[in-house]
Amino acid sequence: MVGSCLALQGCGTPDARAAERQDGQQRKAEAAVVKRLEAHGVELPEAVHPPPASRYADPSPSPRTSAPPDAGFGEPARNTTWEQALPRGADGMVSLDRAGAVRVALLNSPDFQREREDLFLSAQDLRGEEHKFELQGGLTSRGSRLTGARAADESARRSTGSVESSAALSKTTRTGGRFLLDLANSVLVSLGGGPDKVIGSALNLSVVQPLLRHGSRKYVMEDLTQAQRNLVANVRRLEQFRRGFYIQTTAGRSVAQGPVRGQGDAESVGLLAGAPGGTSGAQEPGGFLGLLLSGQKIRNQEAVLQALQDSLAQLEAAFEAGRISNRLQVLQTRQALYNSQSVLLTARESWRTQLDNYKISLGLPPSLPVAIQDPLLEQSRLVDPDTTALQKDLTAKLNALRQRTDLTTLQVLGGEAGELLKFKPRAEGRIRAAEQNLNEFHGGLKPRQDQLARLRQRPEVATMGTASELFDPAATESTHDRLVKTFPSLKSGMMENFAEIEKLRTAVPADRPPAEVRADLQRLAGSISGQLLELSLHQAASRLETATLETIELPPETALELARAQRLDWANAQSRLVDAWRRIAVSAEALKPGLDLLVSGRIPTAGDDGTEFSYGSSTLNLGVNLDLPWDKVDERGAYQESLISYQRSRRDFIRFSDQVTLSLQNTLRVIRLIQMNFEIRRAAVRAAISQVDLARLRLNEPPRPDQTATPFGATTARDLVSALNDLLNAQNDFQSAWITYDVLRLTLDFELGTMRLDDHGLWADPGAITAESVSRRLPPAPSLTSVN
């Protein structure tokens, strides 16, 4: 049975020419619908079909002539050229920043394509309602054969064939009138006995015009008007979906509904910013920014791992030198190193899975190699990855110095000194980068102090007790002065170590023991490694103080007023309420008495040829049809239902306005919370850096005069591990607050209805959001008004 079906699979394929004609007619119909969209300010020529550069574009010339394979027998035709439109880096790999990710999603996302198709279908519904008031024609034909006995001779039989056809024109007027003009034709042909052919035709006319019930243009065109209003609502929905699609792509938050067929459900809004919570005050973003944040946490983990490796090397050297009485601290640090490596491996694999899921949301295959990059990542980074890479390479060289057994001659050790000197240009580059960050801190000190002064005026700061000092502008200046003071000694100390290595390479006495030279190289390399860590912390402290948030100061009352005037879904909610009110009048119309004027006429033909109309035999009938409203149980029920529906719509609208108010107030509340938490998290990073500095000082503390070496305390290693973990967590929380605040600024712009996209679908970043800044850039109220 299955084999027979497969064998006959091609039998139902339409003729190629017929399919081509049908496709041509379909293209004309699509063009008519596109004109309806263009009349409402929407350009969607590709609404039905994905663009040619999309992964989902169908390469088949016509779906009618290219049947997809049955289950288990291959795949449908695929677009093989879509990857050419992807953004690629110099290495040929697909490279995505925020703008590139949005462009790729707009081109390839099935979700966005579905919303465009729904808008197209909504316009097609309008086209169908318009067609009801256009002149319509039709042609029908039917044939039959009859066999019967003759009246005079029962033994003989006669057969006749008949063909009946009808050509009709009809039109419904906008006042409810129905016009029908019909030309009926009948041909009777003898197939054996009797007359050869009998032809009869008649021209029929029928007109019905309501005079009372449904006799007004307002009620006759209600379905057409409603279809127009539905299309306008869907145009708003698509525009709002486009804005929400940017947020969904960049931040992983679904905040808008797309077009729907018909009227759809009532508008609703959730807490777009999410309830306050987490370490920063709000939920972390997903989407592209979530990938950036996860990637930055991995880099923070790598920096801590490198610091642990460097510290472990120093602790092992201290144990060998007798500064540690037992090996417990070395083992504790080694265990922390192993734990950090395990966490890092898991985080990397988790990030790859997160990236694969994100590719699918963009409409890309998960197997496609993609690199994620964005300037925001550089802005939010505290630890310089180049410094971390330098530390890693230097630690590897230091371990080689400690472990190699062939370093027994001054010549070989001189070569190792030369290898260490190769790190000097990279170290000088890191010093220049740290100095640049310090200068940026100096340049941004005044705006930073102004921001703290504004925060210090908030009433919640007065309830924070000693923590209120975090918002003291003088404390920021003190931090700046401390960093400026410590930088020269850090720079000179590192250069002095490189100078000593240069001496070991060129001016070592021939009688000096190689073991002493090797010990000096290890000491100097270890010192430079520690200084690089200190430089990294110094640089992180400068970048930490340079970070600022865009100003958002907007009273809730002003925000709600803006939303009421600018939000497209608010306009739709109002339109839906008006629609419910309009339906009351429509259902009330059905309770009126009916009085229809009836006109009908007929002009038959004379004779058997069917070509000569007999006007003398024509008829014309006039009449009225009266329907008194006695039995209107169903109509009264419909009227009562419309009244109830209107009250429900009123409640839905009030609830919608309450939901918008709640969401806006919550977003502003969470923004204020993050503005406070951002400074607290900044202080936490500052304290964590100080902890690491203090723990590092214990490792590098010089011996007292009465000692050959200063012994470590019993908790030195544990304190260092704890300080590094605290620094990792503090950095992650700080950067999470930073990126989440950017997402909230985007979300607030959307909630106010002031969010605008450029021609490429990218967000036009407004910068600061205040009552003054919004009023300056505020466009006129949405022009997509309801159709009356």
Word description of this protein:
- This protein has 788 residues and is an alpha+beta fold.
- Helices cover 57% and strands 11% of the residues.
- It contains 21 helices and ten strands.
- It is elongated.
- It starts with a helix and ends in an 11-residue tail after the last helix.
SSE diagram, text form:
Elements: H1 2-7, H2 16-39, E1 94-96, H3 98-108, H4 110-131, E2 136-149, E3 157-172, E4 178-192, E5 197-210, H5 217-220, H6 222-251, H7 287-320, H8 328-362, E6 370-372, H9 375-380, H10 385-403, H11 410-421, H12 424-443, H13 445-456, H14 459-462, H15 473-506, H16 514-546, E7 552-553, H17 556-566, H18 568-589, E8 594-604, E9 619-627, H19 633-700, H20 716-752, E10 769-770, H21 771-777
Parallel strand pairs: 1-6, 7-10
Antiparallel strand pairs: 2-3, 3-4, 4-5, 5-8, 8-9
User: What general form does the structure show?
Assistant: elongated
Number of distinct helices: 21
Q: Give me the Rg, rounded.
A: 41 Å
Integer average pLDDT: 81
Q: Unreliable runs, pLDDT <50, ≥5 residues?
A: 1-14, 783-788
- What summary fits the major beta sheet? 6 strands, antiparallel
Strand content: 5-15%
Structural category: alpha+beta
Q: What is the number of beta strands?
A: 10
Lateral strand order in the biggest sheet: 2-3-4-5-8-9
In whole angstroms, the N-to-C terminal distance is: 58 Å
What are the main properties of this structure?
two-stranded parallel sheet; single chain; 10 strands; 788 residues; 21 helices; 11% strand; elongated; six-stranded antiparallel sheet; disordered N terminus
